[in-house]
Design a protein that fits this description.
single chain, 411 residues, alpha+beta, Rossmann fold, 2 domains, 5-stranded parallel sheet, 8 helices, 28% strand, hydrolase, SGNH hydrolase, signal, SGNH_hydro, GDSL_Rv0518-like
């Protein structure tokens, strides 16, 4: 036996690699299970991440409610497991049950596929404040390019919740325990994801996972709602069409910055969340570092280019130290956007020059700038690529970005 520290919680680990959280008592009516420690990505042969989101603070509280969340897979597998995150919670999170099923329409599921998820062999789990837990393997065949519904019953008051604010997808909240309901009743919808941070699949033929790491452009803001038209989704489509079995996980956070933490859903800085949102993702072999610096350049007190470049170099070095191929993206044009300035434009040009330069340390360059800008006005989007706010690409722009990715990078 040995003691280890995970997410600020002291854990007792045995020879089998499991751990028991030493948390305070939970409501007697719930009987929470002992939880296993989340395994490092490198310790899970055959597992890859097929879906995931980056988590932030500021989520709504729940009491005696069921949350059914819709996830879209990039690759399939013969088994599944889920990650639940209480990263920003101030108290232990009590989960009274978790089910996964194939989605039908809306909040509806295919009852024949409804499957209970366990943690340490038990149906309930308590996640310590600041921690993430991984479920047991679920005997569930996961198809690629498919919507699954993951339902969580939350029997006790959660307080402010850990969430992903921009799901570009309706998720469903209902009163009481509706874990097995074929269609939920009396629901409200939310585009947030709550507590659910990842879905892994067991697929020995998979080559690994790509993590798209950035801000609102990566997150899919202004792409068609519910259509899975974010550029990482479209990249996953291209990979499948090419016969490649590679997971794609989107850890973009709208409003996120490279150099500074944000609140109210904007997320910790790229440097502070890189470990959680890239290095700890299951099966990760490649990362695409994208649009965070645009929010630095558009801020009221923007950092200097040297600071932005220094932060880039740190992320690149950390990725390489973990054996990950680092693909750097140029910054898209944003002239005409609310926070554009001539100083910001000069910064964008300097950052793009660094990314394209031979001394950057990047293993490849995704040139989102060249792919999306208007050749006649390079500081602006080509109108067909613009969502209309001059900062975020629309669906056509998302397609152009995904199309600029060289699939030969993923070998």
């Amino acid at each position: 036996m040995r003691w280890v520290m995970a997410a600020g919680v002291m854990l007792l680990a045995g020879g089998c690699g499991t751990a028991t959280a030493q948390a305070g008592p939970s409501p007697a009516s719930v009987s929470p299970s002992v939880v296993p420690a989340s395994p490092p990505a490198s310790a899970a042969p055959g597992w890859v991440a097929t879906w995931g989101v980056a988590m932030t603070d500021g989520g709504q509280p729940f009491t005696r409610q069921t949350v059914r969340q819709i996830v879209h897979t990039s690759v399939g597998g013969d088994g599944a497991r889920l990650q639940l995150a209480n990263t920003f919670g101030r108290t232990p999170l009590v989960v009274g049950g978790v089910h996964v099923a194939r989605r039908a329409t809306g909040s509806g599921i295919d009852p024949a596929t409804d499957t209970a998820v366990t943690f340490g062999g038990k149906a309930t789990v308590t996640v310590p404040a600041g921690a993430t837990v991984t479920s047991d393997e679920v005997a569930f065949a996961v198809p690629a390019d498919t919507d699954l519904a993951v339902s969580l019953y939350l029997p006790a008051a959660t307080g402010e919740t850990t969430r992903h604010p921009l799901g570009t997808q309706n998720n469903y909240i209902g009163t009481g325990d509706q874990l097995t309901a074929a269609t939920m009743h009396s629901v409200e919808t939310s585009s947030n994801y709550f507590f659910l941070s990842g879905l892994d699949v067991l697929n020995s033929a998979a080559d690994g996972t790509i993590v798209a790491f950035g801000a609102s452009i990566t997150d899919g803001l202004d792409s068609a709602f519910g259509a899975n038209h974010r550029w990482p989704d479209l990249l996953a489509d291209r990979l499948r069409a090419a016969g490649r079995t590679i997971g794609v996980v989107n850890t973009g956070i709208s409003g996120n910055r490279l150099t500074a933490d944000g609140k109210d859903g904007r997320g910790e800085s790229a440097a502070h969340r890189f470990e959680r949102d890239v290095l700890r993702r299951t099966g990760v072999k490649w990362v695409i570092i994208a649009d965070d610096p645009l929010n630095d350049l558009g801020s009221r007190h923007p950092p200097g280019v040297d600071q932005i470049v220094g932060a880039y170099r740190q992320l690149i070095a950390r990725g390489h130290a973990a054996g990950i191929t680092v693909i750097c993206s140029t910054l898209t044009p944003f002239a005409g956007a609310d926070y554009w300035s001539s100083r910001g434009e000069q910064g964008r040009a300097a950052v793009n020059a660094f990314v394209r330069g031979t001394g950057s340390g990047c293993d490849a360059v995704l040139d989102q700038d060249t792919a999306t800008h208007d050749p006649a006005a390079p500081t602006r989007f080509l109108p067909a690529n613009d969502s209309g706010d001059h900062l975020h690409p629309g669906d056509k722009g998302m397609q152009v970005i995904a199309g600029a990715v060289d699939l030969d990078w993923f070998r």
